[in-house]
Amino acid sequence: MRREEDRIEAAAALSAAARLPAGAVGPLRGRLWRRFLRHRLAVASAALLLVLAVAVLAAPLVEAWLGADAEAVDLLNRFQPPSPAHPLGTDELGRDLLVRLLYGGRVSLAIGLVVAVAAGVIGTLVGLVAGYLGGRFDALLMRLTDGVIALPLLPLLIVLAAVDFGKLGLPDAVVRSEAASFYRMAILISLVGWTTVARLVRGATLSMREREFVRAAVALGAGPVRIMAVHILPNVVSPLIVATTLSIGNIILLESVLSFLGLGIQPPLPSWGNMLTNAQELIWNAPALAIWPGLMIFLTVIAFNFLGDGLQDALDPRAING
Amino acid sequence: MTRFILQRLLETAAVLLIMSFVIYGLIGLMPGDPIDLMIASDPSLTPEDAARLKAVYGLDRPLHERYLAWLGAALQGDFGYSRLYARPVPEILWPRLGNTVLLMGASFLLALALALPAGIVAALRPHSAVDGLVNLAAFAGISIPTFWLAILLIILFAVILGVLPASGTASAGLEPGSLAALADRARHLVLPVLTLTLVSAGTLLRYVRAAMIEALRQDYIRTARAKGVGTGRLVLRHALRNAMIPVVTIMALDFGTLFSGALVTETIFAYLGMGKTIFDAVMGNDYNLALIGLLFATGVVLLANLLADLAYAWLDPRIVYR
């Protein structure tokens, strides 16, 4: 009898394994890796982003090695073509383009990562509370989320970016400091960027709330905070990672367009967006100045989007993605 | 259904009212105020004059009193004067609204004409070479910064080829209504429309592809195929109609994104539409114009959301609203 049962069980396990897609066998982490590695564009994107991260971190080294100062104006050497001293040439104020691109990348990437994490945290909190507590909290928070989603983002961000924080009583030294435009961008984009994550986490929380292990935890006397943090959060991590990765591209795009319009990162601090502010007037003389920063934005954003797509395939193979 | 529409209309009006207060408050926080501007243009004004002027215009009263006064006037059709153009606000906005409708309408139709066939072809053969190519194009469309694409198109068509104007809405000196003036108008539209088309086609393409793949998986498609329905008829009559339900909804929900894209496009091409007007008004301290322009844009986007809900109900008879 015992053997009979064993054989049935083994057969069931075998047929279950046969139904799973190729590469599904083996320990979980290995499976995730294999599925991710199959998405060739995502792998290439991860490699590209790694190279980019190393390059922007090495910006001061490149600066020292080339002997070029990122912010020093040199009017005698404007619009220089590429040369050993200036691998990508110089801009309209005679500054080395490569060094400025690397420093600009620091700003753009930092905004992308910082805001993605901040917006992810806000969205997770809103989604957990709305989904788990339900009722009035849910109605109120979801109305708020829908409201923010429905607004025309860019025009409102333009007004927000134009707001004079001095009028709110912040000291002048803070408002006018060089880093102020960085923090202002980070805060503004975080304030509008949390909605996707909030909806996603709420949906996942709703489906988790009725599961047996959550009910068991409630029966054992766990409070709502503990249940949300210990039992629900770990189970919504994969969609959270995917959504956060996919949001980085959009954040970098928003930062770059606001900086391009002159409302984001303020010069002399370079960002890929504000390096293009003057490019439009210079296209007749120096089109190359308009190519490089935009190309960097484009490559970075598309890489984050492919990476998110690959993570989605790896973490959630059931998602309808073709 | 009538009750549902009424309820949603009321909600939309409430959100618009809240937004009018928020935007009113934000505009008040922009640098400078009308009296500062008067002092700047007439240095002989003394601080006492300034205080008297503030009292005359009610600028010394608290925010909520000023807002209610403004709201009362606005509800009676008095939207104030534009500072930049010295004319009533509606006179400035109406013609520009027409320009924006033309730009967005043309781009949207073209994007649809690109995305529909491409999305269907990709969905018919998921993971084929064609699908890979379509997917790559879609990701590129999502990831490219609108302003950079615009600059690239200007470099190509205006600087290198010299066949199209780099910016503007129309050339001066042509007889209005003449054939030459119309042709000139069309030439000025080409690059802005092309920019907006390419950036919106990417998102649309992904929606169409995903919805078609989902629709083609359904049992009724298999039944139709088994009955001998040809591929063309199968796709157009059976799958597409059902795939369009989510696509139409998402398109209407994405209206705000399209408007944001139009704002950037108009600003770069100096095309006199709503987006550029709002941007110029914010940058030029034109409080009345910025306020009404922003509120109008918000209202239109909220209305598009409402239409998305209604279209969903209308297209899918299974959905019943209380």
Describe, in short, the structure shown:
The complex is a heterodimer of chains A (322) and B (322). Chain A is mainly alpha-helical and 322 residues long.
CATH architecture of chain B: Orthogonal Bundle
Q: Can you write the helix and strand succession of chain B as a string? A: HHHHHHHHHHHHH
Using a beta-carbon cutoff below 8 angstroms, give the protein chain pair with the largest interface and the number of residues from each chain: A-B, 45 and 56 residues
N-to-C order of helices and strands of chain A: HHHHHHHHHHHHHHH
Counting DSSP E segments of at least 2 residues, the number of strands of chain B comes to 0
Mean pLDDT of chain B equals 86
- State the separation between the terminal residues of chain A, measured CA to CA: 45 Å
> What summary fits the major beta sheet of chain B?
none
Give the termini separation of chain B.
7 Å
Major beta sheet summary of chain A:
none
Query: For the CA atoms, what is the radius of gyration of chain A?
Result: 25 Å
Estimate the helix proportion of chain B, in percent: over 70%
